[in-house]
């Protein structure tokens, strides 16, 4: 009887150490905030915009010259448009985000979050999306890599 009870308990606890979908989305949200806040261009865009909601034509020109129309302004102003959790070789949360750039345009991007690696990748759309680790690749190569990862982990 004892062994049956222990087996039943083990069976019930199997998988309890795995995060549920709500926890995975929360983790993805935190990682999204970190990714937006640590964008290398964000600092220079912020210093040009100086937190102003209303931008002068000259300020807009300066922001566009730096590529700030492609940089998400704030994690708090960026929302998930949809998410889906996949349990394959890696557990991933995939979906889309929408947020405002420093010039006020709306940016829509796809993302992949790996809970195992605690890493979030936002779809690269411009040369400004390259990180120092991806500097040697062309934008097209980065987009192809992202599409391949979407196919591999998010279907």
Query: What integer value in Å does the Rg equal?
Result: 20 Å
Helix- and strand-based class?
Answer: alpha+beta
Choose one word for the global shape. Answer: globular
Helix tally equals 5
Q: Summarize the amount of helix as a percent range.
A: 40-55%
Tell me about the largest β-sheet: 4 strands, antiparallel
Extended strand count? 4
Strand residue percentage: 15-25%
**Span between termini:** 44 Å
Mean pLDDT: 84
Low-confidence stretches: 7-13
What's the helix-strand series? Answer: HHHHEEEEH
Major sheet strand order: 1-2-3-4
Plain-language structure description:
41% of the residues lie in helices and 21% in strands. It is built from 5 helices and 4 strands, in the order H-H-H-H-E-E-E-E-H. It has a 4-stranded antiparallel sheet, sandwiched between helices. A hairpin with a 5-residue loop joins strand 2 and strand 3. About 5% of the residues have low confidence.
């Amino acid at each position: 009887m004892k062994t049956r009870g222990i087996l039943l308990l083990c069976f019930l606890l199997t998988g309890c150490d795995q995060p549920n979908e709500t926890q995975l989305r929360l983790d993805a949200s935190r990682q999204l905030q970190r990714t937006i806040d640590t964008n290398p261009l964000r600092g220079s865009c912020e210093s040009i915009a100086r937190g102003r909601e209303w931008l002068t034509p000259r300020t807009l020109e300066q922001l566009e010259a730096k590529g700030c129309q492609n940089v998400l302004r704030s994690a708090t102003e960026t929302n998930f448009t949809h998410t889906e959790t996949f349990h394959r070789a890696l557990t991933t949360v995939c979906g889309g985000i929408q947020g405002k750039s420093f010039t006020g345009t709306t940016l829509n991007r796809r993302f992949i979050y790996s809970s195992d690696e605690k890493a979030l990748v936002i779809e690269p759309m411009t040369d400004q999306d390259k990180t120092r680790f991806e500097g040697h690749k062309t934008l097209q190569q980065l987009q192809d890599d992202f599409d391949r990862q979407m196919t591999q982990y998010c279907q």
